[in-house]
């Protein structure tokens, strides 16, 4: 039985760190955040948002059906498995989510070379083949000119985003999951938004697919006045949380003052 994420109403999505507030992602699932009109999603004339999502879902289902035996076949080499995962990734980002695929395998920054699978609308994507997880270190993801230590798909794209100011957002992908990553606002606690593709597509879960599509569609990455839709959602969440933080700060100050006032008479009575 699938478990609903306690942070918001989703069984196939995970949010970690301080990248997004759960309430903001829940609003995005409902289409109630900034830049979530039908025009913002660049829907073709004559189509509704529902029709476009349904079309994308059918493409994702058919492509998943072609890819899924990659997970269990024992006759495939590691290179074949990775090639099939990258092919599924290109279809997923391009035909399902609407990104433009840019062929690029190396990004150079500060005399280091970061191996990526490709770019999607100028967002770097790192890919490993399942059953390897997005947090599993892989020898093929070693940064040339760096420490020579193996990276996971997640740490590689995170390190790249932190190092190269040309890129602010990126993805890690392994065929069964996709993870949205931003240049680190915290170096100690990782932050990301992840969707379980296997859970969604193997169960024909259109409702969860709709959540994914609303949150990760290519139009979300479009820069308008220097901000993506994701940047606006983060700012919106920060603004929404400001009154609560100020109220908490006031409560703490009041509690400290009360504690201090109660302590003073005790101190005065001591010899």
What does this structure look like?
The chain is of the alpha+beta class. The chain has one domain. Helix content is 42%, strand content 14%. The chain is built from seven helices and nine strands; from the N terminus they run βαααβββββαβββααα. The protein has helices spanning 22-29, 49-67, 78-96, 153-163, 197-202, 206-216, 229-269, and strands at residues 13-16, 101-102, 106-109, 112-115, 118-120, 123-127, 169-173, 177-182, 192-196. Strands 1-9-8-7-6-5-2 form a seven-stranded mixed β-sheet, with helices on both faces. A two-stranded antiparallel sheet has the order 3-4. α4 (153-163) links the parallel β6 and β7. α1 (22-29) runs antiparallel to α7 and α2 (49-67) packs across α6 (206-216). It is globular and about 45 Å long.
Which percent range fits the helix content? 40-55%
Write down the overall mean pLDDT: 88
Report the oligomer: single chain
Supply the number of structural domains. 1
Short description:
The chain is an alpha+beta fold and 271 residues long. The chain is 42% helix and 14% strand.
């Amino acid at each position: 039985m699938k478990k609903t994420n306690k942070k918001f109403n989703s069984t196939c999505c995970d949010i970690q760190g301080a990248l997004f507030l759960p309430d903001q992602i829940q609003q995005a699932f409902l289409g109630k955040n900034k830049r979530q009109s039908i025009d913002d999603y660049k829907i073709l004339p004559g189509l509704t948002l529902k029709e476009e999502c349904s079309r994308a879902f059918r493409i994702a289902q058919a492509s998943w059906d072609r890819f899924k035996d990659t997970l269990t076949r024992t006759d495939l080499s590691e290179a074949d498995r990775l090639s099939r995962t990258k092919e599924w990734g290109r279809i997923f980002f391009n035909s399902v989510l609407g990104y433009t695929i840019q062929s690029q395998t190396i990004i150079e920054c500060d005399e280091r070379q970061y191996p990526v699978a490709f770019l999607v609308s100028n967002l770097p994507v790192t890919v490993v083949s399942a059953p390897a997880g997005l947090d599993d270190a892989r020898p093929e993801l070693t940064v040339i000119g760096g420490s020579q230590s193996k990276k996971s798909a997640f740490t590689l794209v995170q390190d790249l985003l932190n190092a190269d100011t040309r890129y602010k957002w990126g993805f890690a992908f392994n065929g069964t999951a996709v993870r949205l990553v931003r240049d680190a606002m915290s170096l100690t606690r990782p932050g990301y938004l992840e969707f379980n593709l296997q859970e969604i597509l193997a169960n024909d879960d259109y409702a969860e697919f709709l959540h994914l599509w609303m949150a990760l569609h290519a139009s979300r990455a479009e820069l308008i006045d220097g901000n993506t839709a994701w940047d606006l959602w983060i700012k919106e969440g920060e603004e929404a949380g400001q009154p609560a933080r100020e109220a908490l700060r006031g409560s703490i100050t009041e509690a400290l003052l009360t504690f201090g006032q109660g302590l003073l008479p005790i101190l005065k009575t001591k010899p």
